[in-house]
């Protein structure tokens, strides 16, 4: 793997406007990140592709968008108040706190002290972020910002069943923010305190064979989705959870992991939640033939931010002195960039503006008339823009433009009136 690739990605993200440290002008806020113009587009494209594949193209999955703030009883019943914890240890020398189960971080920390480091014994640390609602001082109700978006799908289970035509097996999909008071946020956006999840809760009959069948099905679907959007097969693997690491709600679980520069790392979990949640919330399903029962749930729970980081890492390429992001066209923030060869030639600019205005009706198009063409290519390569279109003097005569391909840097002439068709074919 490329040396220092994390440093390179972090710098590129800042330089090009993908991701900035949160609240940077005030010294930042640990574990938060802000998405800039390119990052916001990339994130939106990931979400749109997920929604298309999980909701739009499936008859048996519907989407919801539940509130972030929920009645605190939800977190009591779901087991999060008691069990959504990480083991915390404190260094007795400098009082810095770490997760007891992250051996490598603890070893790294020990190296920073000359003396032998002693640690407190592990304590359970709850990850839920507290907030206070209401206007009367002293009488404000304490709530929690959701630690996972999942519960929003469960508490609406009966609402969805009664207001739509779904029948088991069916799924409820959702995308949204989650918050965790992580002990050690780090590795850029990999572990933050505010992040976004994309989740499917898929309800099946409580029969062993059904649970296993759908678990396998969703595992494959999700692995295929990442590959279809360009992540290299060799950088993906599935890993079964061991008994001791399984979440409090899970019967069994497997993680989809990415071969990150900091080691194989989870970015999506496939969990067999059994009837843990519906039972906890006292919810059930009534089948015309089989009567009332509590369905089992197969969950696919992915992180938007983690997958965005891995899409970037996987796309990062250095070839022949060129740095470019080989992002799948569906994910690329801008699909095309349009340049007039010279910014001070009115006829070139007006021809290029016409193309720009026309194409942007259907896709995100960048405009650049600064510096020379080489610099513009350089900037668009780092932004991951698949195609650059240049209007030159010949265009004024032959009504054709130069189209340059990001990955091969090959150029070809394309007639202006054929551009939409040409690009549509290439951007699939
Ligand atoms: P980890 O063991 O890394 O803390 P987890 O097993 O607690 O993760 P889940 O509760 O299964 O994670 O959450 C589902 C997904 O949400 C994860 O696969 C990940 O993509 C995302 N996620 C969880 N915690 C964070 C975080 N702190 N920052 C960014 N994404 C996160």
How would you describe this structure to a colleague?
The structure is a single chain. With 428 residues, this protein is an alpha+beta fold. It is 33% helix and 29% strand. The protein has 14 helices and 23 strands. The strands form seven sheets. A seven-stranded mixed sheet has the order 3-9-10-16-13-12-11. A hairpin with a 7-residue loop joins strand 7 and strand 8. The longest helix is centred in the middle third of the chain and has 21 residues, at 208-228. The model has no long low-confidence stretch (mean pLDDT 95). The structure holds adenosine-5'-triphosphate. The site of adenosine-5'-triphosphate (ATP) has 16 residues, from strand 10, strand 13, strand 16 and helix 10.
Task: Please specify the SSE layout and strand pairing.
Blueprint: H1 5-16, E1 19-21, E2 33-35, H2 37-56, E3 61-63, H3 73-77, H4 80-83, E4 85-90, E5 97-99, H5 103-111, E6 123-126, E7 129-133, E8 141-145, H6 150-155, H7 157-163, E9 170-179, E10 194-204, H8 208-228, E11 236-240, E12 252-260, E13 263-274, H9 276-280, E14 285-287, E15 291-293, E16 296-303, H10 304-315, E17 316-319, E18 322-325, E19 336-340, H11 346-359, E20 365-367, H12 373-383, E21 387-391, H13 393-398, E22 400-405, E23 411-415, H14 419-426
Parallel strand pairs: 3-9, 19-20, 19-21
Antiparallel strand pairs: 1-2, 4-5, 4-6, 7-8, 9-10, 10-16, 11-12, 12-13, 13-16, 14-15, 17-18, 21-22, 22-23
Bound molecules: adenosine-5'-triphosphate.
Adenosine-5'-triphosphate binds next to strand 10, strand 13, strand 16 and helix 10.
């Amino acid at each position: 793997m490329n040396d220092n690739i994390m440093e390179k990605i972090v710098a590129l993200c800042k330089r090009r406007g993908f991701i900035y440290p949160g609240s940077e002008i005030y010294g930042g806020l640990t574990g938060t990140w802000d998405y800039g113009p390119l990052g916001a587009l990339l994130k939106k494209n990931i979400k749109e592709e997920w929604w298309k594949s999980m909701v739009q193209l499936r008859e048996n999955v519907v989407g919801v968008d539940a509130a972030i703030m929920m009645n605190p009883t939800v977190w009591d019943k779901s087991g999060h108040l008691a069990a959504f914890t990480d083991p915390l240890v404190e260094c007795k020398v400098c009082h810095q706190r770490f997760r007891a189960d992250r051996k490598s971080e603890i070893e790294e920390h020990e190296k920073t002290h000359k003396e032998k480091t002693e640690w407190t014994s592990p304590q359970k640390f709850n990850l839920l972020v507290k907030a206070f609602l209401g206007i009367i001082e002293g009488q404000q109700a304490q709530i929690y910002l959701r630690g996972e978006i999942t519960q929003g799908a469960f508490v609406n289970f009966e609402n969805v069943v009664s207001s739509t035509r779904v029948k088991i097996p069916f799924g409820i999909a959702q995308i949204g923010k989650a918050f965790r008071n992580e002990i050690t946020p780090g590795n850029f956006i990999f572990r933050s305190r505010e992040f976004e999840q994309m989740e499917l809760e898929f309800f099946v009959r409580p029969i062993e064979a059904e649970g296993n069948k759908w678990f396998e099905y969703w595992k494959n679907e999700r692995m295929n989705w990442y590959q279809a959007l360009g992540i290299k097969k060799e950088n993906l693997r599935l890993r079964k959870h061991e008994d001791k690491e399984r979440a409090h709600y899970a019967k069994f679980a497997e993680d989809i992991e990415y071969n990150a520069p900091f080691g194989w790392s989870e970015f999506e979990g496939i969990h067999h939640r059994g009837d843990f949640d519906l039972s906890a919330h006292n919810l059930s399903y009534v089948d015309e033939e089989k009567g009332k029962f509590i369905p089992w749930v197969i969950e696919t729970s992915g992180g938007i931010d983690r997958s965005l980081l891995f899409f970037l890492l996987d796309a990062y390429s250095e070839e022949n002195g060129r740095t470019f992001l080989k992002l799948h066209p569906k994910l690329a923030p801008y699909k095309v960039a349009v340049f007039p060869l010279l910014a001070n030639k009115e006829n070139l600019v007006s021809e290029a503006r016409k193309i720009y205005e026309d194409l942007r009706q259907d896709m995100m198009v960048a405009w650049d008339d600064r510096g020379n063409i080489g610099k513009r290519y350089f900037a668009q390569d780092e932004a991951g823009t698949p195609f650059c279109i240049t209007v030159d003097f010949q265009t004024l005569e032959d009504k054709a433009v130069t189209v340059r391909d990001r990955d091969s840097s090959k150029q070809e002439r394309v007639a202006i009136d054929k551009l939409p068709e040409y690009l549509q074919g290439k951007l699939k």
